Amino acid sequence: MGYFFNRKMKMKELEYRMKAKAEMRVATSKMITPLRIQACERLLLFLERSQLPVLVKRVYTPGIGKEVFHIALLQSVEDEFEHNLAQQLYVSAPLWDAVQRAKEELVGQINATFDKTEDGTDVAIIAQALVALPNPFVEQAIALLKKEFNEI
């Protein structure tokens, strides 16, 4: 009889632990879900602000020098990215990788565009060239972000 009593107590204890874990998961989910939603919102904002037409419009001012414009574009991307680094805690690894790839591709496009232009090139022409560039990595990251958001 002692064996069955001990076995029954162990089963009750196991059942209690499983129920406690389930309740903890629900409570954690209730706390984490708003943070995940906020992370998606912030990363979407970063990606949208990083699209070249938006970025150039925000940074370009008539009369700005080539070097200053180049540095301002890169600094804007870096600042926005660094401001959102903590969001990686709340999104999947593939999404975070896509955001990083989008940022790296953007920086590469900016640098390549400036490297291709000659010293005397009008900054307005550089701005137009940047605005015309496609950035499929940003578009892919946005699509992945929206997909992940819809799964929350």
Describe this structure in words.
The structure is a single chain. The chain is mainly alpha-helical and 152 residues long. It has one domain. The chain is built from 6 helices and no strands. The model has no long low-confidence stretch (mean pLDDT 92).
Please indicate the count of domains: 1
Number of strands: 0
Report the sheet-strand fraction. under 5%
Q: Main sheet, how many strands, which sense, barrel? A: none
Q: What's the shape?
A: rod-shaped
Taken in chain order, the helices and strands follow as HHHHHH
| Arithmetic mean pLDDT | 92
The count of helical stretches stands at 6
- What's the alpha carbon Rg, rounded to whole Å? 25 Å
Q: Decide which structural class fits the backbone.
A: mainly alpha
Report the end-to-end length measured between terminal Cα atoms: 49 Å
Regions with little confidence, pLDDT below 50 for 5+ residues: none
Name the helicity range.
over 70%
List keywords for this structure.
152 residues, 6 helices, 0% strand, mainly alpha, 82% helix
SSE topology:
Blueprint: H1 2-50, H2 52-59, H3 66-83, H4 93-116, H5 123-132, H6 136-151
Question: How is this structure best summarized?
Answer:
By secondary structure, the chain is mostly helical. Helices cover 82% and strands 0% of the residues.
